[in-house]
Amino acid sequence: MLPHMLIPPVGAPPGFRFDIRPTATPDGVGTVRRLLRDALVAVQLDPDTPCLLLSELLTNALVHGGSASVIMELRAGCLLIAVADHSPARVERLPECSERTGGRGLALVEALADAWGVSPFGAGGKAVWASVAAA
């Protein structure tokens, strides 16, 4: 990644957009997370919460959908992360259960994001998105 290419002109609000189809592996999640971290650091924004949101959304899409497309866009002080897959399976936030070892990702997304939701994508798929104020 070339951080100097991410720095906006003087006086312009920081912004970027990435459209990515990562590999459907844990390495693919890490690669996209590092790209987001580098981009946010380059425009002097805290990457921790956005990177956690991205990891949850992308991992869910890869586990349940097999492949994913990712859009990460910073515009006007708001970061949007959208992860789409072609699976027709519904997205459900599971009720809390101390005995279950997984299924807490959407609760985490709900707690950390300013807003989140699910939108139709393609022929029967969906995009799960989250937005946070850039800080």
From TrEMBL:
<dbReference type="Pfam" id="PF13581">
    <property type="entry name" value="HATPase_c_2"/>
</dbReference>
<dbReference type="GO" id="GO:0005524">
    <property type="term" value="F:ATP binding"/>
</dbReference>
<feature type="domain" description="Histidine kinase/HSP90-like ATPase">
    <location>
        <begin position="24"/>
        <end position="130"/>
    </location>
</feature>
<keyword id="KW-0723">Serine/threonine-protein kinase</keyword>
<keyword id="KW-0547">Nucleotide-binding</keyword>
<dbReference type="InterPro" id="IPR036890">
    <property type="entry name" value="HATPase_C_sf"/>
</dbReference>
<dbReference type="InterPro" id="IPR050267">
    <property type="entry name" value="Anti-sigma-factor_SerPK"/>
</dbReference>
<protein>
    <submittedName>
        <fullName>ATP-binding protein</fullName>
    </submittedName>
</protein>
<dbReference type="GO" id="GO:0004674">
    <property type="term" value="F:protein serine/threonine kinase activity"/>
</dbReference>
<keyword id="KW-0418">Kinase</keyword>
<keyword id="KW-0067">ATP-binding</keyword>
<dbReference type="InterPro" id="IPR003594">
    <property type="entry name" value="HATPase_dom"/>
</dbReference>
<keyword id="KW-0808">Transferase</keyword>
